[in-house]
Amino acid sequence: MTVSARVGDVRLLFDPFARVSRGAGILVAIVVMIAGVAIARMGVRFDGFLDLHVTGREVPLRVAVADQVVAIPLGVCIGWAVARLFRARADLFDVLSAVAVARIPPLLGAPLVALLSPPPDRLVAEALAGSPVILLIAVIALPIVAWHITLLVFGMRHATALQGGRLAGLVVAFILSAEIASKLVLRIL
Predict the structure, then answer these.
(1) Where exactly are the structural domains of the chain?
(2) How many angstroms separate the CA atoms of 107 and 84, rounded?
(3) Do the Cβ atoms of 167 and 156 come closer than 8 Å?
């Protein structure tokens, strides 16, 4: 295998969107939502567009499903609407692929973060005490968040064909709008 082939393979971790068909995007969205509900049963709550919190107890099924509906379908609608505000011809299925694929890193990291996390009532005290476990969780979580956002950027670039400052503005507006909307909708539900 050549070096360029290996570099291309690594790029797929951050920009797989040209290879994700409509059908595959829909399938990824369904699998990601089901996996999110299953992981929530382990005591991890995905309570917002980007958020992941360890609850220390099993998340009720109704809440876990609501979290996934807010993260994926609502996130897709907001991403598409923000893209339209930026005058981009966003394809709804490409936005679905962007949002769904970008949710994979948090799903992969959530079980490990849940296993390492102290109970929520001790989390702040351990963080203030400089617990090495909290540092380890941060070392695990920060690359996951970076990967998540990187996938959103490449996914929205693919969905909208925007680049540079317009793409950056769109992604920032999308993430902020989706996070605020997800929190508001979850409060109502």
Answers:
(1) 15-188
(2) 29
(3) yes
Distance of CA 72 to the CA centre of its chain: 9
- How many residues does the structure list for the chain? 189
Q: What is the pTM of this model?
A: 0.86
Encode the chain in three state secondary structure.
CCHHHHHHHHHCCCCCHHHCCHHHHHHHHHHHHHHHHHHHCCCEECCCCCCCEECCCCCCHHHHHHHHHHHHHHHHHHHHHHHHHCCCCCCHHHHHHHHHHHCHHHHHHHHHHHHHCCCHHHHHHHHHCCCHHHHHHHHHHHHHHHHHHHHHHHHHHHHHCCCHHHHHHHHHHHHHHHHHHHHHHHHHC
Distance CA 58, CA 99 (A): 25
Q: Which of 141, 150, 145 is nearest to 98 (CA)?
A: 150
CA distances from 146 to 83, 88, 141, 149 (A): 22, 25, 9, 5
From first to last of the 189 residues of the chain, give the pLDDT tens digit: 444 445 557 777 778 888 888 888 899 999 999 999 999 988 999 988 998 888 988 999 999 999 999 999 999 999 999 999 999 989 899 999 999 999 999 999 999 988 888 887 887 788 888 888 888 888 999 999 999 999 999 999 999 999 999 999 999 999 999 999 999 999 987
